[in-house]
C-alpha cells in the first residue's frame, strides 16, 4: 500500500521534480509513495482559464480564485479521503513530529497558494489544517509541499537504505544528531575522535548520545527543555559541558 499525495498546484512540473531524484524517487520506485498533481487551471470555466482575481478592497497583487480551487478539491476528493493541508506562512510551524503524524495516515492533499494567497473562503470551506515551513514568505506553496513529500518519504518503512537511518536523524528523539565522519582519517590537520575507531559499540553509542545532548544544549536549548533527561543523560551532558568549557579555556 503506497502513501498517496495529491498536490493542488499551478506548477505541477515543479512539484513533480521532487520525485525525480534522491530518496523521494526511490520511494516512488518502491511504490512507497504516489504523487498526483492537480492544476486548478484545468477547473476554470472561462476561455482565458483565469485562476486569479484582483483583491476586494484594492491593494497590490492578485488572489487565487475560490471557484476553480474548490472544484479542484472536489475532483481530488473523488480519489482521496485525506485531509486538505494548505501550505501557508500563517500555518502552524512544520516539525518532524508533525510529519511523523502525517506518515501514520495513508494520504494527504496539499494545497499550494500563489500570488497574495488564496481566497479566504477556500480555507473556511475546504481546508482542514494550515502548516508553515518557516517564518519567511515563499512565492508559492510548491517548495513547502515538496518539503513535506521529501521529509515524509524518509519516514516510510524500507525507503531508506539502512532501517535505522531516520531513527538517528535530528529531532526524531527530540535531540539534534551527533557529528559524522568518514574516510580519510585525516582531513588537513583534523583527525577523528578515537572512540569511533575503538570498535567498542557501547562506548560509541555513549559518545554519540553525549554529542547529541551537548550539541542540542549548545545550539537548540529550547529542544532540550522539552525533554525529561535520565540521570545517565544528565551526567553525559554535564561531562560534555565541562570538557567543552575546558577546551575553551585552553584555546
Ligand atoms: C506570496 S505567498 C502569500 C503570502 C500571504 N500574502 C501572507 O503574507 O500570508 C504565496 C503562497 O506561498 C505559500 N507560502 C509562502 N510562504 C510559505 C511558508 N512559509 N510556508 C508554507 N507556504 C508558504 C502559500 O501557499 C501562499 O499562499
What secondary-structure arrangement, pairings included, does this model have?
Blueprint: E1 3-8, H1 12-16, H2 22-29, E2 33-38, E3 52-53, E4 63-64, H3 66-77, E5 84-93, H4 96-103, E6 107-112, H5 120-126, E7 129-132, H6 142-155, H7 165-168, H8 201-219, H9 221-225, H10 231-250
Parallel strand pairs: 1-2, 1-6, 5-6, 5-7
Antiparallel strand pairs: 3-4
Helix pairs in contact: 3-5, 4-6, 8-10
Residues 87-90, 112-114, 116-118, 132-134, 136-141, 144 line the site of S-adenosylmethionine.
Structural account:
The termini are far apart. The chain has 2 domains: 3-155, 3-Layer(aba) Sandwich (Alpha/beta knot); 170-250, tRNA(m1g37)methyltransferase, domain 2 (Trp Operon Repressor, Chain A, Orthogonal Bundle). The chain has helices spanning 12-16, 22-29, 66-77, 96-103, 120-126, 142-155, 165-168, 201-219, 221-225, 231-250; strands spanning 3-8, 33-38, 52-53, 63-64, 84-93, 107-112, 129-132. Helix 3 runs parallel beside helix 5 (120-126), helix 4 crosses helix 6 (142-155) and helix 8 packs across helix 10 (231-250). 41% of the residues lie in helices and 14% in strands. With 251 residues, it is an alpha/beta fold. The model has no long low-confidence stretch (mean pLDDT 95). It binds S-adenosylmethionine. S-adenosylmethionine binds next to strand 5.
Bound molecules: S-adenosylmethionine
Using the CA coordinates, give the radius of gyration: 23 Å
Tell me the strand percentage band. Answer: 5-15%
Number of domains: 2
- The CATH topology label of the largest domain is Alpha/beta knot
Q: Helical element count?
A: 10
The helix/strand class is alpha/beta
Report the principal-axis shape.
Answer: elongated
CATH superfamily of the largest domain: SPOUT methyltransferase, trefoil knot domain
Largest sheet: 5 strands, parallel
* DSSP strand count: 7
Distance between the termini: 56 Å
Amino acid at each position: 500500500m503506497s502513501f498517496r499525495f495529491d498536490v493542488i498546484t499551478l506548477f505541477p512540473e515543479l512539484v513533480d521534480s521532487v520525485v525525480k531524484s534522491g530518496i523521494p524517487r526511490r520511494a516512488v520506485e518502491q511504490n512507497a509513495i504516489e504523487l498526483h498533481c492537480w492544476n486548478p487551471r484545468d477547473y476554470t470555466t472561462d476561455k482565458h482559464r483565469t485562476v486569479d482575481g484582483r483583491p476586494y478592497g484594492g491593494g497590490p497583487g492578485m488572489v487565487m480564485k475560490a471557484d476553480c480551487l474548490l472544484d479542484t478539491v472536489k475532483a481530488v476528493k473523488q480519489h482521496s479521503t485525506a485531509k486538505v493541508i494548505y501550505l501557508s506562512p500563517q500555518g502552524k510551524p512544520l516539525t518532524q513530529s508533525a510529519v511523523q503524524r502525517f506518515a501514520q495516515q495513508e494520504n494527504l492533499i496539499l494545497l499550494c497558494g500563489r500570488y497574495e494567497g488564496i481566497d479566504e473562503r477556500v480555507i473556511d470551506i475546504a481546508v482542514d489544517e494550515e502548516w508553515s515551513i518557516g517564518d519567511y514568505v515563499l512565492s508559492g506553496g510548491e517548495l513547502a509541499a515538496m518539503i513535506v513529500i521529501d521529509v515524509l518519504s524518509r519516514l516510510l518503512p524500507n525507503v531508506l537504505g539502512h532501517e535505522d537511518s531516520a531513527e538517528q536523524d535530528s529531532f526524531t528523539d527530540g535531540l539534534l544528531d551527533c557529528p559524522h565522519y568518514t574516510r580519510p582519517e585525516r582531513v588537513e590537520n583534523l583527525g577523528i575522535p578515537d572512540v569511533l575507531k575503538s570498535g567498542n559499540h557501547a562506548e560509541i553509542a555513549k559518545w554519540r548520545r553525549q554529542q547529541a545532548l551537548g550539541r542540542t544544549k549548545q545550539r537548540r536549548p529550547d529542544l532540550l527543555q522539552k525533554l525529561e533527561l535520565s540521570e545517565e543523560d544528565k551526567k553525559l551532558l554535564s561531562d560534555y559541558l565541562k570538557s567543552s568549557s575546558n577546551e575553551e579555556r585552553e584555546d
